[in-house]
Amino acid sequence: MIVQPSTKRQEWEDFLKAQRFSPFLQSWTMGDVFQEIGQDPIRLEVREGNEIIAICQAIVVPAKRGRHLMVQYGPIVSHRLPATGYQLLWNELVKALSDIAVEHRCSFLRISPFTPFIPFSPFTPDVKKSLPSPLHLLSEYTWYIPLRTVDRWQDDVFDRNSEARSDDEIKMDMRKTTRNLIGRAEREGVTVTASKNPNSDLDIYFKLQEETYKRHHFVPYRESFIRAQVKHFAPQNQAIVYIAKYLDEPIAASVHMTYGGVTSYHHGASTHKYAKIPASYLLQWTAIHEALQRGDSIYNFWGIAPRKIHDNGEEIIINKNHPFAGVTTFKTGFGGKPFPLVHCFDIPLSNTYYLTRAFEQVRKWRRGF
Question: How many Cβ atoms from other residues are within 10 Å of residue 154's Cβ?
Answer without folding.
Answer: 12
